[in-house]
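hiii so my PI (J.) wants the whole complex modelled not just the main chain, which honestly fair. so below is everything: two entries, each one labled with what it is. i double checked the lines twice but i was tired so who knows lol
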Amino acid sequence: AQTVTQSQPEMSVQEAETVTLSCTYDTSESDYYLFWYKQPPSRQMILVIRQEAYKQQNATENRFSVNFQKAAKSFSLKISDSQLGDAAMYFCAYRSAYIYGQNFVFGPGTRLSVLP
Amino acid sequence: NAGVMQNPRHLVRRRGQEARLRCSPMKGHSHVYWYRQLPEEGLKFMVYLQKENIIDESGMPKERFSAEFPKEGPSILRIQQVVRGDSAAYFCASSPVQGTGANVLTFGAGSRLTVL
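here's the output for the full assembly
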């Protein structure tokens, strides 16, 4: 079974600075999808960014970008020009591209604080 | 587009009572997932359903918990004879069958169950 690990329970960043959140995963598959979701205090889960494993190019969404290292099974999230609204729990998630009905596996989360 | 609708947002039950949580997927989505989030923890997969069909219930406790997604109406997560350990936030998510969004989960705002 696949597992997702986020080794940083908490992180903090100064407003306007850059922060990187770590995520590693364990799988024997070659094709899959990786995601970062954000959960602000409202508790609504919001998709931040998505990466297909077959794509070598790292995904970017405005101030959010990933560093996808397939061989190392690493999928870190970089937040540039951090804003107060970025403060939230961030969850890394994995989904198989092969198995029909495969559920999404989430990591334990990293709580990000943004300091003014 | 109303998104994924969950109700109730908050539910209080006494030990031994039944809890019913409802989820209407996003328009055009026919796959529903239920996740449980304990305080300060990540999301744990419970069950994955299509209309009138349970695809994967490997995360569901063997007793007291059941889920359905009827042909008409919302998906329902039912917890019988609730205990204090059932207190958690229960999130529903949906995805379309095909298309570029097929591997992205859209979440509802969650239902918070408190067992007294």
